[in-house]
Each structure stands twice: as C-alpha cells, then as structure tokens.
Design goal:
heterodimer, A: mainly alpha, two-stranded antiparallel sheet, about 0% strand, B: Rossmann fold, 3 domains
C-alpha cells in the first residue's frame, strides 16, 4: 500500500494543484499574447468585474459541497438589489446618506436571509431537489423584481450607496475588499468550524453523518441561509457598481458563479472542494472573459466559450476522479 | 433422465476472492418434488442457486439437466432451458400492469408493435389456469409482496419452467399469504415441476419438503428424504462444526448494574413494522449477543434504539432513567454508540481523511470559541491510532483506502474519543480478516472491562458463543428466548432462531 501511495497519481496531483496550474498558464499566456492585459488598471478591472461573481461563488461552494445547487443567483441579485435601491431612495433624504446606505445593506442581508431560509426549508422539508426549487425561485424572484420596480431601473441613489460598488479604500476598490472579507469568512467557516466539517460529512456521506449524530437537514438549511446572506451582500454591490437598480440585471450570474466553483475543483457530486479553489476559479473565469474583451471577440462567441469552459471543467473532474479511484484499486 | 433426476449437480466448487463459497456440493433433484436446501447464514445456499441459474459460473463440477451435461451457461440460457428463479428480493416494475411484467422483455409482437390484445389474453388465461385471483390489467403497485411472488411464479410457468428455484420466498410475507404460496407449490408439484426451496423456518420445511439437502460452510453434508429428519436432527447437522479461531470473552470481567433497559419496543406497520414487544436488560461490563437469522429484525431494533429509525411504542431506560430518543444526537447524548454493519454506508465518510472521520462525532469538544483546534484533533486521533493499533501511513489518508479491519477500527475510534456507556456493534467482524477479527474481539473485552455495556449482533454462531455473556435470540421481529452463557450452544440457539412463530 505504501508503495502505491508514493507513486505519482495525476488525479490526486490535479486535485491539489490543478486549478492553480491552470491559472498560472492562462495568466502567462495572456500576459505574453494579449495586449494591455498586464496593465495594473486592467488587472484591477478583472477583480472588479468579478467581485460579485466571486462572492456568489463562495457560498455556492458550500451548497455544492453538500451536493445541492442554486441556479437562481441572477434573479436573486436583481430582486434583492432592487429592494435595497428602493429602500435607499426612500430613506436617504431623512437621514445621513452613510446611515441610509448601511441601512440598505442591512435590508439586503435580511432579504437574502429570508430567501435563503425559504430555499433551505422547502428543500429539506419536502425533499425537493435544490435544482428544481431554485429554478422556481429564478422566475419568482425575477418577477418580484419587475413588479417592485414596474420594470424600470431604479436610479438616484446617493453616492454613499454607490460607494459599495464604485468606491476605493486606498488603492483598492471597495467591492474587492468586500469580496476578500467574504472570502476570509467563508474560509474560516468551512475549514475551522463544526459547521464546515459537517458540510463535508453530509456532502460526502449523509447516512454516516446522521449516524454520527449530525442533523443533516439543519446543516443544509444553514448552508442556504449563508448562501442568502452572501447573495444579499453581492446584490447590493452589484447595483451600487452600476449606480442603478436594474430589475432585468444579473442575467447568467448563476452560470458564472457555478463555473467558478467547478473550475475551482469542487465536485458537483458533492463531498469535496474548497473556497481557495473557488477564488482561483473565479479569477480564471474573469481572465477568460477579460481576454476575450481585450481581443474584441464577438460576444456571441464568448457565450460559446463560457459553455465550453464549464463543460471541460466537469469532464476533468469526473475523469481525474475515475483515475484516482483506479489507482486506489 | 433415466435415473429419475431432472437436475443433477456434482462436486460443484465456487471460489470468491478469499472464500470457497461452495466446496464440492452435490444436489439431485426429482421432478414433481419439493427439495429444500438447509444451512446456516452464509452456508452457500444462495450461491448454489446462482450457480445453477447461471448468475455465477461454477469453477469446478458438473451440471446435468434432463440427462444432458450443461457447460458454462448464462441466466438467459437456463431460462430458455426451463429453469426459473424467484429471488429473495423481487424487482417488479410497479407502474406496469401484471401482463406487462409477466412478459417483460419477451412481449408478443405484431410487426414492430407490441400485440397488446394477445399480451393481456395470454396473461389472463395463465392467471385463471393457476387460480391466481388477479386481473391482467392491474398495476403491480396494487399487489402485495405475496402477490408479486405469485406473478413471478406465473411468469416462470409461462416460460414452461420445469425447475423453479425459490430463495426464501416466505421471508417477506405473512402467514395467510404463505398458505396461498403453498397451494401454488402443491399445484406445481402435480404438474411435475421440481421446486428448489430455500428457507430457515422449520415448520415450513416439514410441511412442504419431500427431500432435504444440507450444506454447511460451502460443503455438502448430506441429502435424504424429509421423513428421515426432525427439527433436532436437522439443526444438529446444520451447525455440527467445531469451534475454532475465536477469541473468547475473558470471564473475570465484573458485571455491574443495569445500564440499558428496554421495555416492549414495537415498530408498527407505518413505521416499518420490523419488530414488536422487544424487552431486555443490559449490564455494565456485559456483552449481550444478538443471534438470529439474517432478517430477524436485530439490526432494526438497534437502529431504532439509536434513533436512526422510528420507534412506535415502548420505553428506553438508561441507568434507570427513562429517556426519549428521537434522533441520533439524542442517543449519543445518552451515551449510546452504534457501529453499523454497513461500514461504508453508515460508518465512514470514505472521501475524507482519518482525522476528519475520527473527530466527526465529538467535533464540538475540539472547538474553542467556535473554532476547531486541529492540533487537539491530531493529538487525540494519534492516541486512538496507537490504542487500537490502526495501520495507516498518516492521518491524512482517505478512509476509503483502508482495509476492512482498519476501517472498522477507525469507526470504533470515532466513538471511543467520546463518553460511551452502551456500545452497539452490528456484525462487527463481517468481511474482516481473521487477524483483525480477533483484535476486534480483544477490544470488545477491553471495552467491557472499562465498564462499557456491549451489544453485539452477529450471524456467526461461533462468535456469538465465544463472546457473549448472554444471548438474545430473535426471529421475525420478536425475541424467541434469552439464553445464559451456560445454556447457549449452537443447537439451542439455532432451534430458537428457526422455531417459527406458530410453535410454542
């Protein structure tokens, strides 16, 4: 047994370092062949454009390790974001704009928590596949956003609000700082708390987790609650960045978030993955989008490329897992 | 067929990795007779049937059917030859009708389309001929399990089977339904069909058997007419082996006060209906063996006590105090631990490493201000690895890569870092090599000596006899008797385990 452990196992190696390798290769290729890519302004742009996707991807990592999924991020962004814009507009006249902005942040978080709790409750109570539940939420939340705004974008928020998406702390954009804070929170939760360990246990083998005294439904509910909180914060940043509450906005954000998670090495079949991989995955997805823009690639083609990226990532996951399993035998 | 046998098996050997499942088995089957195969759990009965019907190819030996030697064959071949098997677990397509199930995969056709008129006509004729009171258009879902079995028999007849193999057909059905099944069997005999029947129930054997073949540990013991046997003789032949290789319990371990007592535990039909009126006591330092045939309901009782399955009524007392157990975390809080027979399904998270698995139950004890102290986990895990002599390269190895014995020790370690009063072990040494087996037995003695109360479910009689202070014998969801170490023998246990519900 010891011998086979020392043998080089591509599956295992890829599992640990694969995502980072891909990032390095892509970054080096882009630096060499894509004009303007290495300019600091562009690099900050990559982070800026992907801060929201990364935030969503962090909590999506929890959900996906559990073997569940959320496909409603795009509409949840629109729904929660529009509510926080409306709140901002209605209170900013009567109080200091900074307090009003913080209040809208709180509202975004609370609305996110409510949506997350409903997701978790329905999925665990009725044993509905998360895919179906969140598919329904996709349409419900989008409809809700359009109803609340009558289908027209909400504008006129104070700069204190827009600071969350456009402001800077020192040389670093506020949204990037928020993303980093959420990353640290997600990392600590997943790696250093009972909740995080329970996520891996339930995602890896729910029966064994229950037989070890873990309330698996509670774990799933908490993960969706967390997912709601992160989505709420991401929604505020999303709207603040464009200084407008767009009820039709956020299209395809779920796709980018899930792609970032999967490219980051988290398996869609549950049980394994981590947020370090996810942040790298988000940057990879960001670079791919950025490079295509810099090279003026037709946006229709960009869609095709996006689809191929997630497809290849999933195939790599399945194939390397199979290879690893073979070596074990 | 001149010798009067429709099916003959001579010196059949079947080797699975690590075991000789069949080792020189003979079987001579006459048409129009019911031939019962007797043997303990794991004697090789089902394997023999699967060799006959082609699921497993035999490694050695001869099979003669209707006077002709049959070479290597598949299930499809035997079906075409007229050998049908009715499995212990039936798999009907519930949403399809009876007729569709009977002719599944061999539907009558008209051109490219299924000829439904003929399908239903043929099936209804068949059902009527067999006096099976169903309509061919009924969905399988509407039928009971006994009904599914009858349809399975009809299917066998529709294939013109001359040998029908029934693997414990009565294990899943009630007394009245068994009567219906027996009527069909008697009718089949009249038509000259040979029935190969596996059962553990003594009363059934003596009602329907014409001939009996006994196998033990994969070896053919003897065959003879049923009239030559009575229950005592049969049991004696089934278990008559010498006991070797078992680490006996150390008898100087003091037995203390009652730790666990259960009274009248019952699981009603709605909750699964796997046992009723279960009462027993368990003392400190005691190892209480649970014996019985596979499916007797032993695991189900333990799963309910541990909070994995619902309990309809009855009381559980820990150290004299009544406790409510609604889920596993309640049970764990009361100091109950359970090592499942399904190590991979319920014991381990195979994709995670050793320390994650060991720390899973008592994770909260390793957290300081909500943050987990990995150093402490590594420390405690290493202690456990030393204590239980788990052979691993390091704690970061995935649990799925370990051998069965080491996996079992990791499961034990997971419980032992907490405070366990009652340790329930369900088939703790199944699928584990002999060396690791006796290590686990030694550990069980150590748990008892430390004052733990141990419940051990085992389907191996030598293990039950070697390790238990007392033996609870179950059959069909009830306790048939509790034997003291001094009364427990292979014979006395097997007699209780196969007594049959209707016997006193």
């Amino acid at each position: 047994m010891n011998k086979s452990e020392k043998k080089f196992n591509f599956g295992e190696f890829y599992g640990k370092w694969g995502t980072l390798m891909i990032l390095v290769v892509i970054a080096v290729l882009s630096a060499l062949f894509v004009p303007n890519f290495v300019k600091p302004r562009n690099l900050i742009n990559v982070l800026l454009q992907n801060a929201v996707v990364a935030m969503l991807a962090f909590s999506a990592t929890f959900v996906i390790i559990l073997g569940h999924i959320n496909v409603a991020y795009g509409s949840e962004l629109a729904f929660i974001g529009c509510i926080s814009c409306l709140v901002m507009n209605s209170v900013q006249a009567s109080m200091s704009p900074v307090v009003a902005a913080l209040l809208s942040l709180m509202v975004a978080v609370v609305v996110g928590m409510v949506i997350g709790s409903i997701n978790g409750y329905v999925i665990t109570k009725f044993n509905i596949p998360a895919f179906i539940m969140t598919l329904a939420v996709t349409t419900i939340a989008r409809g809700g956003a359009l109803l609340l705004t009558n289908g027209t974008p909400v504008a006129g928020m104070d700069d204190a609000f827009n600071w969350f998406g456009q402001g800077y702390i020192g040389p670093i954009p506020t949204s990037v700082i928020i993303m980093i804070v959420l990353f640290v929170v997600a990392w600590v939760l997943l790696n250093k708390t009972c909740f995080g360990r329970h996520i891996y246990a339930v995602g890896g083998n729910e029966n064994a987790a229950v037989a070890s005294g873990i309330n698996s439904k509670k774990v799933v509910k908490r993960a969706f609650l967390l997912d709601g909180i992160f989505t709420g914060i991401a929604a505020l940043v999303f709207m603040a960045r464009q200084a407008s509450g767009t009820p039709a906005g956020g299209l395809q954000y779920e796709f980018d978030a899930i792609t970032a998670v999967v490219v980051g090495g988290t398996s869609l079949s549950g049980g394994s993955g981590n947020v370090v991989g996810t942040i790298i995955g988000a940057i990879i997805v960001g670079i791919i989008n950025n490079v295509q823009n810099l090279l003026h690639i037709n946006t229709y083609w960009q869609q095709v490329v996006k689809g191929l990226v997630i497809l290849i990532a999933v195939i790599i996951d399945v194939v390397t897992k199979r290879a690893a399993a073979k070596v074990k035998k | 067929m001149e010798n009067g046998y429709i099916l003959e098996m001579h010196d059949v050997v079947k080797v699975f990795p690590g075991v000789r499942a069949l080792d020189g088995v003979n079987l001579l089957v006459r048409p129009g007779k019911v031939h019962v195969i007797c043997g303990e759990n794991g004697a090789g009965k089902s394997t023999l049937m699967k060799v006959i019907n082609g699921t497993h190819p035999a490694d050695e030996g001869k099979m003669i059917y209707k006077g002709k030697e049959i070479g290597p064959h598949t299930i499809q071949d035997t079906m075409n030859m007229g050998i049908a098997m009715i499995y212990q677990e039936l798999n009907p397509v519930l949403e399809m009708t009876i007729a569709e199930n009977v002719y599944l995969g061999r539907e009558p056709k008209k051109g490219a389309f299924v000829d439904f008129t003929k399908l239903y006509q043929d099936t209804q004729e068949l059902l009527d001929r067999l006096n099976i009171p169903y309509n061919a258009h009924q969905k399988m879902r509407e039928l009971s399990i006994a009904g599914h079995q009858l349809i399975e028999i009809a299917k066998a007849i529709s294939m013109n089977a001359s040998v029908i193999i029934m693997d414990e057909p009565s294990s899943a059905i009630g007394d009245e339904e068994i009567e219906v099944l027996f009527q069909q069997i008697f009718a089949l005999k009249e038509q000259g069909v040979a029935i190969l029947y596996i059962t553990h129930k003594m009363d059934e054997i003596f009602r329907i058997a014409d001939e009996i073949t006994i196998i033990r540990d994969g070896k053919w013991i003897e065959s003879g007419p049923a009239s030559d046997y009575d229950a005592n003789k049969l049991v004696a032949r089934m278990v008559g082996r010498e006991i070797t290789n078992v680490f006996p319990k150390e008898h100087d371990i003091p037995i203390g006060e009652v730790v666990l007592e259960v009274k009248n535990l019952t699981q009603s039909k709605e909750d699964g209906g796997r046992f009723e009126n279960i009462s027993f006591q368990l003392r400190k330092g005691e190892i209480l063996g649970f014996a019985g045939l596979v499916g007797a309901g032993r695991s189900e009782v333990m799963r309910a006590i541990f909070g994995l399955d619902p309990l309809t009524s009855g009381e559980v007392f820990i150290e004299g105090k009544k406790v409510e157990i609604r889920n596993t975390s309640d049970a764990i809080r009361e100091g109950i631990a359970m090592v499942s027979e399904d190590r991979k399904g319920y014991g381990l998270v195979l994709g995670r490493n050793i320390r994650d698995n060991i720390s899973l139950v008592n994770l909260k004890d390793f957290a300081k201000n909500g943050l987990i102290d990995d150093k402490k986990i590594i420390e405690r895990s290493n202690e456990m690895v030393d204590l239980l002599n788990i052979k691993i390269a390091n704690l970061d190895v995935q649990a799925g890569t370990l051998s069965g014995g080491n996996q079992q020790k990791v499961v034990l370690a997971k419980w032992l870092i907490g405070n366990v009063k009652v340790m329930i072990l369900d088939e703790p040494t199944r699928g584990i090599d002999v060396g690791a087996k006796s290590e686990i037995h030694r550990l069980m003695c150590r748990f008892a000596r430390q004052g733990m109360a141990v419940i051990m479910i085992s389907s191996e009689l030598p293990e039950i006899l070697g390790m238990s202070d007392r033996v609870v014998v179950m059959q069909e969801g009830v306790i048939n008797g509790i034997l003291d170490r001094s009364e427990a023998t292979q014979e006395s246990i097997m007699k209780l385990a196969t007594r049959g519900k209707n016997r006193e």
